[in-house]
Design goal:
Order of helices and strands of chain A: HHHHHHEHHHHHHHEEEEEEHHEEEEE
Helix content of chain B: 25-40%
Helix content of chain A: 40-55%
CATH topology of chain B: Rossmann fold
Strand content of chain A: 15-25%
Structural class of chain B: alpha/beta
Low-confidence stretches of chain B: 1-8
Largest sheet of chain A: 5 strands, antiparallel
Largest sheet of chain B: 5 strands, mixed
Oligomer: heterodimer
Strand order of the largest sheet of chain B: 2-1-3-4-5
Number of helices of chain B: 5
Number of domains of chain A: 2
CATH topology of the largest domain in chain A: Serine Threonine Protein Phosphatase 5, Tetratricopeptide repeat
CATH architecture of chain B: 3-Layer(aba) Sandwich
Largest interface: A-B, 25 and 25 residues
């Protein structure tokens, strides 16, 4: 801009005629340029992809300061209108031990998802003319079910098991609504079974365990790569307790667990249930591609979301209690579910992207037929608005892991240990658990990465909005080994 | 692409603008009588709560456990409210219809209520405080509480059947009066509510 001004100043000295001419025209071009830059800025700002926001937000989790992540999440979408922001807020409040606040914002997300039911004419029109982010985000089906699962876990941690049960029933209704071939979620069914069991409803628990096993089996390979051993044991145990011996024998043969003996229901024992949310879900990034459109005989640029990072290797995790070590088993591989879900959506995304590219090409063409400036403006606008929809619930863990163990009634020191490839323990979460007779005691934790003990120069303010209770004492005692 | 007549094109942005305006207008508030039926989402609401309270109150006062107790003991029975478990698929506040019931029963003069466990704790701490700080004549002594004769317990259950966009919801509310000491059930009240919910297939 200084160059224009300098040139203008030089010319100014030369002739008064030129002067008048330039005043008019330079100011016109200046105006145009400024407005163009402004317009572009507005576009870029409003369309800043969710993926990049998520990356910044998750940094706090990766350095062991979840309250920083929460503060960033709370800053965004203060009116709680976007489902994806509310999901993040809920999860981060949870991680910061604010279970009530987490459920408040989750409940808002749940209602917003309900509002997004039905086919929206305007949003779908916008998705084929502007971009995909104009569509309301209601979450993929696995995310919608996990919302209920995490609300239930919040209620469990608040000691409100009846309310956790309500969440499970709501998830049931949701799956029922989805039709003949419901998108069942194995972990949700497993959790449902455990909630029923802790409420003493063993008959309902059996049905849930049976369903969980069926989902692990039927969706095995693609969505559930590994069948957890634990579910087999729980199913057999519950069948034995209910006296369904024929089914018991059939499953025993199917599982090839002929030496399995179900434990007796005893007043001297209670069960410890450890649920570990390990790692972080993958983030969608924007990719662009030129595809040939036979309709307009041109190569057209389209943007679409992709998981371009490979799956992370997780640290091995185990629980240690009473000198016994037990591996935690993966009961929900969210990374796999996320990739699978996007893969399923891809044909639709690409179809809409192609339609959009054709519409945009045509607007550019008509505009440039009228005037070259209008054509240029249209091209810039179309390029700037062509954004991929990178929204997904990125504060979910990479995997949900589980282990259950019977313990004598009383207080126990439980450790969740993280082991690296060399077999060294790199981090430990410690917790004291009171085991009650015939009851389930839940320990539910989130973990991402081992944190180096001292981090010089890193100051943390615990006063993020919405952080309640004691955030410093994150209930996770970390000790460096 | 063929352009339409310019006049037609001029209206398009206007139309879009109007749509956005409609979508984001200010909330309108209008006051209604508290017994108006307002079914919005199909979820459990105040109307359901009121229907349950009405049914239960009518039933509990017309059954013969009351007269029988009066005849045998020569006084009005004292009732305490226990837990009403929510086993339905919704987060239902059971306190609303229980409070309605309490009010009606107390006002009828035929049944007395004692405060629930939580409320008692608060009252006791107040009495304890009076022991230290209140004057001799206004001070209330401890150990004068009335023990309840019956406990009111119950549950809400629901059955939901759904296909895409359509739901049939059935709620059953069961309340039981159990005689303390003997564990006899003296009254069982029941209210069933059924509704169908249809969701629109389109939105703006």
């Amino acid at each position: 801009m200084t160059a224009i001004r300098d040139g203008y100043y030089m010319l100014n000295k030369q002739s008064p005629f030129f002067n008048r001419f330039l005043t008019r025209h330079v100011s016109f071009f200046l105006c145009l340029k400024v407005s163009l830059v402004l317009a572009l800025g507005v576009f870029l700002q409003s369309c800043a992809s969710y993926g990049s926001h998520a990356t910044t937000m998750r940094d706090g989790l990766l350095i062991g300061h979840p309250e920083l992540s929460l503060a960033i999440a709370e800053e965004k979408d203060k009116d709680l209108e976007e489902v994806v922001s509310s999901l993040d807020k809920g999860m981060l409040r949870r991680i910061n031990n604010n279970y009530t606040g987490s459920n408040q914002v989750f409940e808002v997300a749940k209602q917003e998802i309900e509002k997004l039911y039905g086919f929206s004419v305007t949003e779908n029109l916008a998705s084929v003319t502007i971009n995909e982010t104009m569509r309301g985000y209601e979450g993929d089906r696995y995310e919608q079910l996990l919302l209920h699962a995490y609300m239930a876990m919040n209620y469990i941690q608040l000691g409100q098991f009846d309310s956790a049960r309500v969440e499970m029933l709501q998830a049931n209704v949701k799956m029922m609504e989805w039709g003949d071939e419901p998108d069942e979620d194995a972990f949700l069914r497993y959790l449902e079974g455990m909630i029923y069991e802790s409420l003493g409803e063993d008959d309902s628990a059996l049905i849930s365990y049976r369903k969980a096993y069926t989902v692990y089996k039927e969706k095995g390979g693609e969505q559930y790569p590994v069948m957890p051993e634990r579910i087999k044991k729980d199913l057999l145990r519950m069948l034995a307790w209910q006296g369904l011996w024929n089914e018991y024998k059939t499953y025993k043969k199917e599982f090839d667990m002929l030496d399995f003996k179900p434990v007796k229901d005893s007043n001297k024992f209670g069960e410890l249930v450890v649920i570990l949310n390990n790692g972080l879900a993958p983030i969608r990034n924007e990719k662009a591609l030129y595809i040939f459109s036979p309709e307009v005989q041109q190569n057209l640029r389209v943007a679409f979301p992709a998981y371009d990072q490979p799956k992370q290797n997780l640290y091995l995790s185990q629980i240690s209690v009473n000198d016994k070590q037990l591996r935690l088993e993966t009961v929900e591989d969210i990374d796999t579910l996320a990739r699978y879900s996007l893969e399923q959506d891809m044909p639709g995304i690409m179809a809409r992207a192609t339609a959009r590219a054709v519409v945009k090409y045509n607007t550019q063409k008509t505009a440039s037929d009228n005037s070259s400036i209008a054509g240029l403006l249209m091209t810039v606008t179309n390029l700037a608005t062509e954004r991929a929809d990178t929204r997904s619930w990125t504060t979910l863990p990479q995997e949900i892991q589980l282990q259950r163990v019977l313990l004598p009634v009383g207080e126990h020191e439980v450790q969740i240990q993280f082991v690296n490839a060399a077999g060294r323990i790199v981090d430990v979460i410690e917790e004291t658990v009171a085991i009650q007779p015939k009851r389930q005691s839940f320990v539910i934790k989130h973990w991402n990465t081992p944190i180096p003990k001292s981090k010089p120069g890193l100051k943390v303010s615990a006063e993020g909005p919405g952080v309640q209770g004691d955030t410093q004492e994150t209930a996770v005692a970390r000790s460096a080994k | 692409m063929n352009l339409h007549t310019p006049t037609r094109n001029q209206y398009l942005p206007l139309l879009f603008g109007l749509m956005f305006l409609l979508a984001g207008c200010n909330p309108t508030v209008s006051r209604v009588e508290s017994d108006t039926v307002t079914d919005l989402s199909g979820n459990w609401n105040d109307t359901d709560s009121r229907l349950v309270a009405q049914e239960m109150i009518q039933d509990v006062l017309s059954r013969n456990w009351l007269s029988k107790f009066n005849r045998d003991k020569g006084k009005a029975p004292t009732v305490i409210v226990g837990t009403v478990r929510n086993l339905s698929h919704e987060h239902i506040n059971t306190r609303t219809f229980i409070a309605d019931m309490e009010r009606e029963l107390i006002n009828s003069g035929e049944v007395e209520f004692v405060a629930s466990a939580d409320a008692r704790e608060e009252v006791r701490s107040e009495v304890k405080d009076q022991d230290l700080n209140a004057t001799e004549e206004s001070r209330k002594a401890m150990g004068n509480e009335v023990g309840a004769d019956f406990m009111l317990q119950g549950s809400i259950n629901s059955i939901v059947d759904a296909v895409s966009g359509e739901q049939a919801r059935f709620y059953q509310i069961d309340l039981t009066l159990i005689e303390l000491g003997t564990n006899r059930k003296v009254w069982v009240g029941q209210k069933k509510i059924k509704k169908t919910v249809e969701k629109g297939g389109f939105r703006l």
